[in-house]
Amino acid sequence: MIEITDVAPVSVPHRIRGRAWLAGWLTRVRGDDRAVCAALMAERHPVGELLGVHGGASYVLLRLEVGEISVDDLWGTDHVDPEDLAAAEPDPLVHHETEVLQHLASAHADRVADLCGLLGSREADGMAAVPLALDRFGLRVRFTGGGVSSFDARFDFPDPVADACGLRQAMRRLFAAAGERTEDPAENPAENPADDRAGDRAAD
């Protein structure tokens, strides 16, 4: 069994965002299958020389045939079909998430805190807001302090994001919407250019 722990790349209480468990049968890869499996690994991590594909045999190559997968995260605990996992594609923001979250937390904490205006209540007023997770579907923020229990809020993008350019546009729209909610509607009947500029900086 392999246990995977997803830890937030920002400083926040209770940094573990989720866990996954993959259980199955572990077998040694032999013969011609060794080169095939090494090539598959090299697509993600080019370490072919360590796998003995050039004549060496210092490392043992093992294959895990997954029989059962379970996940425990923000949405609860559930099982995942191994075939669905094998067919799944990585999130397009997986290589950007750490950098974007750390940038938002260090340089744009005020704009992240403004997102509380989209929650439809005053519950998050006065609380610290930390960007906790990011994927193609939206941004997850943890609100802490303020004399109440901490909680997470998920802010979905209108459409799934495909790349860094799409993320910049989605973040700009999200922050602009939060800026409109935190101002007096009578004084902000249309779009606020200042919010757009702030969204640009936060998404850079």
Write a structural description:
- The chain is of the alpha+beta class and 204 residues long.
- Residues 184-203 have low confidence and may be disordered.
- The chain has helices at 32-44, 82-87, 97-107, 109-113, 164-182, 193-203, and strands at 2-7, 16-28, 62-73, 76-80, 128-135, 138-144, 151-156.
Which key terms come to mind for this protein?
single chain, about 200 residues, alpha+beta, three-stranded antiparallel beta sheet, disordered C terminus
Which helices and strands, and how do they pair?
Blueprint: E1 2-7, E2 16-28, H1 32-44, E3 62-73, E4 76-80, H2 82-87, H3 97-107, H4 109-113, E5 128-135, E6 138-144, E7 151-156, H5 164-182, H6 193-203
Antiparallel strand pairs: 1-2, 2-3, 3-4, 5-6, 6-7
Helix pairs in contact: 5-6
Short description:
This protein has 204 residues and is an alpha+beta fold.
Overall form:
elongated
> Which spans have pLDDT < 50 for at least 5 consecutive residues?
184-203
| Helix proportion | 25-40%
How far apart, in Å, are the first and last alpha carbons? 40 Å
Structural class: alpha+beta
Mean of pLDDT: 83
